[in-house]
Amino acid sequence: MKTNIKLAAIITYASVFLGVIISLGSTPFIVSTLGKSEYGLFSLVNSIIAYIVLLDLGFGSAVIRFNAKYISENNSTGQRNINGMFLLLFSAIGLVSLIASVILVFNFSSIFSSLSESELSILKTIFIIAAINVAVSFPLNIFSSIITAYERFVYLKVINLIRVVLSPAMMVLVLLFDFRSTGMVTVALVLNLTIGVINVVFCRTKLNLTVRFTGFDTKLFKEIFSYSSYILLSSIAFQIYTNADPLIIGMFLGATPIAIFAIAAQLNTYILNFSNVLASFYLPKLTKMIVKGADQAALMLELVKIGRIQALIVGYIVSGFVLFGQSFILIWLGPDYKYAYTVALIIIIPQITSIVQSLFATMLEAMNMHRVKAFIYFSVAILKVGLTFWFIRFWGITGCAIATAIGMIINVCLNNVYYKYKLKFDILHFWLQIIRVFIPVVLLAGLSGFLLSFVSITSYVYLGMYVIVYSLLYVLTMWLFGMNAGEKKMIEGPVRKIALRSQA
């Protein structure tokens, strides 16, 4: 399984990197083709759809956990029965989501009173197509969750790599034919349907998966719902953090400021995608460890190991953005979007602590002990919304970012109190290990920032040169001062194999 995870992680990083490069290349074309207003509407639809997706009620993670549990117990009958129930549930949820979307469309005029009639017309059209996409995705997504439970990560990541390449290419193509935002959401619908069908075929032919409709097991459903309800609460909180701001901006400031905030959010998403790759693989593994009776020491070893690796990754990405982000945005999109750098910084920097501890959330789900964390996250998210409504009146989109940052800081502090005093994890040891990574990062970034203050970066060529130099300095600094013996061994092994193959 280690080989599977390593190969899948490599493919995932390749997908994320390729996705970022393609997105960075296509975004200026998309923004200029649609214009600020329609690009803002497209971003607004994505924010609204993110809330419709919450109708899965947290059952997506439950599909992974309960399938992984039955696989570990070699209980094929239970697996067939539970997947039959999941398929019925998600089909019903898909229908409910479509009905809710139609009702919502009829109320857009009163909700988004700052939009013009033409903007409302575009918003309604692209939202309906996106809503259909979500409705059909609910039952189809079960099969990707089942594949995850089987830890067939390589297949999933190859499919995702194909999606990463095809999606922006098809969107640019429809824009060239002047289908605008309507064509873009239609592309997403067609692509999701195609990949969903491929996953169904894979489950049937490669995993020999069969689904049995034997009736509705009320007792089992209560157990699933008890597990899923707190994941749902966390998902709601997450959507509030990531998608409430565009909605509030649309209510108070109009479509154009949404576009600027959307660029900052997009940059934040890039960083999250790079930083959280490893944690995404660990729910099946941790579930199986816990089912087999792993003790707290074994779990803590995994948490520290992955936390340090994530710290090495996020340290490079965030420090690089701090140093080069503003120059990049000016070259990429021009001075109209310059302020997106400030907004992105306010959001990104407090999020570092959550990223390095992301495996804690996965572990709690595996232990079925995520209730308190969900309540903390949801409570802080509600506070964040209140602060956003207050701050936006004084500081505009900056106020939205500040409210988000305050919420993140409070959330991390409360969670660490819970980990230490309730779950009895050695949080001090964890953070001492993380700080050992970040001290050389901060010193290197500070020195680099001082030296860069004497130069002007005005083209991709100069930007690329400075990024390469900083990257080499980062690798050298981490090797000498940031990495421990185990982390160096992880790198030395593959490098030695490549060297021996090249000599042969």
What attributes characterize this protein structure?
single chain, 504 residues, mainly alpha, 18 helices, 85% helix, globular, transmembrane, Poly_Biosynth_Transport, Oligosaccharide flippase family protein, Polysacc_synth, cell membrane
Topology:
Blueprint: H1 2-52, H2 59-72, H3 76-105, H4 108-111, H5 117-149, H6 153-176, H7 180-205, H8 218-252, H9 255-275, H10 282-291, H11 296-332, H12 340-356, H13 358-367, H14 371-395, H15 397-421, H16 427-452, H17 460-482, H18 485-503
Helix pairs in contact: 1-5, 1-6, 1-8, 1-9, 2-3, 2-5, 2-8, 2-10, 3-5, 5-7, 6-7, 8-9, 8-14, 9-11, 9-12, 10-13, 11-12, 11-13, 11-16, 11-17, 12-15, 14-15, 16-17
Helicity level, as a percent range? Answer: over 70%
Indicate the low-confidence ranges by residue numbers.
none
Q: What is the average of the pLDDT values?
A: 83
Give the CA-CA distance, first to last residue: 28 Å
- What is the CA-atom radius of gyration, in angstroms? 23 Å
Q: What's the total helix number? A: 18
Largest β-sheet summary:
none
Query: In oligomeric terms, what are we looking at?
Result: single chain
How are helices and strands ordered from N to C? Answer: HHHHHHHHHHHHHHHHHH
Shape verdict: globular
Structural category: mainly alpha
Organism: Paenibacillus tritici
Subcellular location: Cell membrane
Keywords: Cell membrane, Membrane, Transmembrane, Transmembrane helix
Membrane topology: Multi-pass membrane protein
